[in-house]
Amino acid sequence: MDYGAKLDAEIEARRDDLIALTQDLIRIPTLNPPGDCYLEICEYLRDRLATKGFDVQLVRAEGAIGDSDKYPRWNVVARREGAHSGECVHFNSHTDVVEVGRDWTYDPFGGELDDGKIYGRGACDMKGGLATSIIAAEVFVDLFPEFSGAVEISGTADEESGGYGGVAYLAEKGFFAPERVQHVIIPEPLNKDRICLGHRGVWWAELETFGEIAHGSMPFLGDCAVRHMGAVVHEMEQSLFPALAEKRTDMPVVPEGAKQSTLNINSMHGGMEEPEADYTGYPSACVPDSCRMVLDRRFLIEEDIKDVQAEIQSVLDKVKAERDTFRYDLREMHRVLPTMTEKDAPVVTTVAEAIQDIIGAPAEYVVSPGTYDQKHIDRIGKLKNCIAYGPGILDLAHKPDEYIGVEDMVDSAKVMARSLVKILLGHDEITVGEPKI
């Protein structure tokens, strides 16, 4: 029996449902920060998946970073057991979206369909991917009710701010334990013909330089912390940034510029705190005695985290040797080690075969320049058989007029559904049930 043609036809038949589901998800404004509407979107997903026979849990990440009574971190995990024992395939998508920003020409939470594209904040990153995985899973369980194993779908919080109230919390509670889940696909937007094997590492730190406050008309009586920070930035420009540009990786990182080590100065503030928005006066005349800078260092699988830290320390030591009154404090904010799944891992080879079937070309293997929730599944859940695969163009993430292409979602749904067949059926003689539309 040609199960592939049956799958494809059924997914095509549910194109309108896929569009409507994506639009519904976009219209729930799950902005993070602060963490709006998490419960609302989890309840929506619960109600949808429960009608398809999934057992659904709502899990609040109580006590996790970001969780509060005002902004509780809610997650949803849905599981559909097959008729026979077997392995579990888990589709994990984050439900949060970043701030809207400026220069939109579409309603950021309108979910407007225009010329085959659905527009809105989170359309690409990653509510389109979430909707795609749901349609793929629903089609699979409807057509092949006698499958072996289990299918899981999760919608999780806070990926855009580290995932600690989402996948990290669930991993700590055993939801991604290898004895419970064996294959994980994260539908991040990395193009429908690509398999993302992992990501670079990240080390975030806050550097504060200190000075001495004095009257701004007599700065010689104080010590300007901003000038000290300026000396740090100058030394970074002279020595650190050129050194980082020379570091290259064998990881298939995209885009090309991310194949090197990078450092971003995320923010900087010196002097008095910013006044309230309705304050109309001038600042007072003071020499700033504090300046803070947040560093976002992305590093390669070939680098050791201790060397990453030592490079920053070397810059500070050099500035200290040249400035008698230089004082500072360096505080690590968080770290994530690089991760990369092997190309011969079961989930990789399975999805690659499905991409070849649907796209008609070999899958491209890539690594993400930034981290995503695979880090928690790997490091906390101890599950290595994990990839990112989903519809959408990565470059559109976090941009104005973000969109997801309907055709890309349809093709990706076919890839996901075929991957379920390959893993959870594993043989050619299969029983096709009546679609439950």
UniProtKB/TrEMBL annotation:
Its cofactor is Co(2+); Zn(2+). GO terms for molecular function: hydrolase activity; metal ion binding. The keyword Lipid metabolism does not apply. Gene3D superfamilies: 3.30.70.360, Zn peptidases. Keywords: Cobalt, Hydrolase, Metal-binding, Zinc. It holds the Pfam family Peptidase_M20. Residues 198-322 form the Peptidase M20 dimerisation domain. It comes from the Bacteria. The keyword Transmembrane does not apply. Belongs to the peptidase M20A family. This is Acetylornithine deacetylase/succinyl-diaminopimelate desuccinylase family protein. It comes from Halocynthiibacter halioticoli.
